[in-house]
Amino acid sequence: MQTKKWIHTTLVLSLSSTLALTACSSSNNGPSSSPGSESTGKEGSPGKTNEKITFYAQYHPAIDALKPLIPDFEKETGIKVELNVLPYPQILDKQQVALTSGSESIDVGMADPMYLSQWNNGGMLTDLSALIADKNATNDERLALDDFMPQALKQMSKDNVQYALPLYAETTELFYNKKMLEDANVPVPTTLDELMEAAKKLHDPKKGQFGIVLRGQRGNGLNIFIWTGIYRSFGGEFLKDGANDFDSQAGVAATKWYGDILTNYGPPGASSIGWQEALDTFSQGKAAFMIDASTFAGSLEDSKKSAVAGNVGYATLPKGPNGSFPALAAWGMYIPKNSAKKEAAWKFIQWALSPEVQLKSAVEHSRSDVARQSVWQDESYRSLFGSWGNWADVTFDNINIASPDYRPMIKNWTQVGDDLGALVSAVTAKTLTADAAMKKAQEEIKITP
Q1: Predicted TM-score of the model (pTM)
Q2: Which region ranges are annotated with the description Disordered (predicted)?
């Protein structure tokens, strides 16, 4: 997920032993400490294979939820699954090396669309569209292609080629402290201008109360992950007629808005605020508003961790001149072109992403990031979040309206995002004006389509 720095641990384990390890543990929130153990698909069962596939996955709640269920797949098919879990960004680095070297060490991988797009452009991924069309290889009922969240599915395709399928999807939304707004008789803002005015009215640093908290720390996955939504809301584009468009009126206005609201109505040291600091500030009841990841709701509604549990409101991102642009951060599963076990890998992907398995993993582990429409609409799933107010409706709607190109699918996004992040952070720190920062971005940042 974009918002989490997972524990830097490497996990190589089989799923049969996972259940035994979990039963002996008081918590199932972390990885097993027994790397290298063997999985237990039953060998020699009639109609089953004795293959083993290797799955490289991100350390993430969606994988934590899937892990205990994989023995069911092994029992059904006889295919053993060796699961290798790595934290972000090591999981991406590992796959990058394997794919570019032509290694056959990965049969099923997992990555975000920015990397998937690059790997697909490099001819390193299997065309899943061909497998989807092959009725001998695909169980249409299990795959249920039309049941995926459409924007997340589209984010993993290009020119009618589906090169990955979404495992999870997250978005951004406006969080607000209901009591603060009610006490001050402030309505929930629906435009960026209204949000600026509401943050100003509710900002009272002498009382330890800030109008808003946003990510100010530089980085493509830090301030730029949130800033991009504001930039697009003002009408900004990363490429216009084949060239950068950062110093446009929209680019300058969006950057000025971002710097002004965070500097004037946010906590001190705005340019050093990361996602964790933003979450902590809001969960402690110190900020009236926050724009950040939809999955933060789990922490905010946990009364053991949060002072605002039961007092959080959720809303779609306020509109700018060009509309509302919530983020779309999805990760998908793919098959490397060099895998020698594509048939077994495809069976695993169909099983892992099936509506049945996704519903079970979501309900049993209270996932807030599912990429299946039927799961979002299932009452047993929605009942998990009954005390979260309108969170489920807002999040479902945001994912459906989010643009698959929220972040541009360019080859050098990481560098572009990091360079932009430094300039936006400088505006927040008041060492550059928005006009100067965007002029510098226009002159110095080169985009490789």
Answers
A1: 0.85
A2: 24-49
Residues 98 and 15 in one domain: yes
SS3 382: helix
Q: Are 332 and 158 in contact (CB under 8 A)?
A: no
**Residue pLDDT, tens place only, 13-34:** 333 333 232 333 333 333 322 2
- Domain end, chosen from 363, 388, 413, is at 388
CA-to-CA distance for 1 and 10, rounded, in angstroms? 17
Task: Look at residues 360, 388, 416 and tell me which one is the last residue of a structural domain.
Answer: 388
Residue 297 sits in the same domain as residue 270: yes
Q: Is residue 1 part of a domain?
A: no
The helix/strand/coil state of 190 is: coil
Helices and strands: H and E segment counts in the chain: 21, 13
Residue 306's domain comprises 171-327+405-444
Same domain (yes/no): 132, 198: no
Spatial CA neighbour of 3 closest among 329, 232, 301? 329
Q: Which two tokens stand for residue 172?
A: 């951004």
3 within a domain of the structure (yes/no): no
- Contact 4/296 with Cβ under 8 angstroms? no
Give per-residue burial for 210-249: e unless 16+ CB within 10 Å, then b: bbbbbbbbbbbbbbbbbbbbbbbbbbbbbeeeeebbbbbe
Residues 351 and 243 in one domain: no
Which tens digits make up the pLDDT trace of 144-202? 999 999 999 999 998 889 999 999 999 999 999 999 999 999 999 999 999 999 999 99
CA 38 to chain centroid, in Å, comes to 30
- Concatenating the DSSP letter of every residue in 268-319 gives SSGGG--HHHHHHHHHTT-EEEEEEEGGGHHHHT-TTT-TTTT-EEEEPPPB
Count of domains for the chain: 2
Closest to 359 in 3D by CA, of 21, 32, 69: 69
**What is the sign of the dihedral through the CA atoms of 245, 246, 252 and 258?**
positive
